[in-house]
Amino acid sequence: MKRLKYAVHAYAWTPSWSNRTLDLIDRAKLLGFDVIEIPLMELELVDAAAIRNRAAEVGIDLCTSTACSIANDPTGDDQAIRQRGVKYLMNCIKATADMGATVFTGVTYSAIGRRIAEIPGEEYWEHAAKALKEAARFASDQGVVVGIEPINRYESFLINTCEQGIRLREMIGERNVALHLDAYHMNIEEADFYEPTRKAAPFLCHYHLSESHRGTPGTGQVNWEEIYRALASVGYSGLVGMESFCEVSGAMAAATCIWRKMANSSDELLTQGLSFLKGLEAKHYGNLVRNER
């Protein structure tokens, strides 16, 4: 049986990606990860060719992610902002393809952190679907899957749950649009972890295995047994990953609201977390293999 592919988000070590952080590709491989997730929030600093070459040298796969801003919000009130959103998504998709990756995901549907005064009307959903349909068609030509990551109510007014993510995907209507779950956000928004994971599984392109406090998996409130039981029950063998943080500063501190040190070091957090998660995989996927016999 194929095993899960474990990714680590580069923000586990750095608040900003550039060629000065290329060595993190090596570190991810050294710590036992299969994939490193490259952030595209500062797209102008991303050297796709350098990333592709370094990953090939090291022998590790890549995926990418972003979070749209107010300046390039696909659901912005102004048409020019929405058009910039589509252009930004396409540029992210191009960078993803240029570095040899096939999954681009994150908060691709609206601006992270944006607040509105009431429950969002259908126009927001329609704007998001229209933008992502255009981006997804471009991505299809590039061989890239576009993910939708539901995040918590304090960071998005539009897509907070698996059900909402599935609805938006259906509105977009493109085969290369997928779902991206995150246990940290699910801990706030979902009633449990098992059912959303099962529902998302047919459309899943990534799963952030983030603890309830963003620290080491297994030390918080996330029900990891439910997550792995659900993934194993459908034989999921795709991308999962750690988006955990030890200590951050500047813009990253404000974005993640982490105001205390979560572990002795990032490497320690990631190593312990990865060991814990692989133990769950061995348990639940091992049970699946034994049951099949």
Task: Summarize the structure in short.
The chain has helices at 23-30, 48-58, 79-98, 122-142, 162-172, 183-189, 194-200, 224-233, 250-256, 266-292; strands spanning 5-9, 35-39, 61-67, 103-107, 145-148, 177-182, 204-208, 239-242.
Give an overview in words.
44% of the residues lie in helices and 14% in strands. The chain has helices at 23-30, 48-58, 79-98, 122-142, 162-172, 183-189, 194-200, 224-233, 250-256, 266-292, and strands at residues 5-9, 35-39, 61-67, 103-107, 145-148, 177-182, 204-208, 239-242. β3 (61-67), α3 (79-98) and β4 (103-107) form a beta-alpha-beta unit. The protein is globular. The chain starts with a strand and ends with a helix.
Label this structure with key terms.
293 residues; alpha/beta; TIM Barrel; 8-stranded parallel β-sheet; 8 strands; 44% helix
Predict the CATH topology. Answer: TIM Barrel
Largest sheet: 8 strands, parallel
Structural class of the helix and strand makeup? Answer: alpha/beta
Mean pLDDT reading: 94
Helicity, in percent? 40-55%
Backbone shape: globular
| Rg result | 18 Å
Specify the CATH architecture. Answer: Alpha-Beta Barrel
Task: Supply the number of structural domains.
Answer: 1
Count of DSSP H/I helices:
10
Query: What is the β-strand count?
Result: 8
**Top CATH class:** Alpha Beta
What's the order of the H and E elements?
Answer: EHEHEHEHEHEHHEHEHH
Strand order, sheet with most strands: 7-6-5-4-3-2-1-8
Low-pLDDT segments: none
Query: N-to-C terminal Cα separation, in Å?
Result: 13 Å
The CATH superfamily is Divalent-metal-dependent TIM barrel enzymes
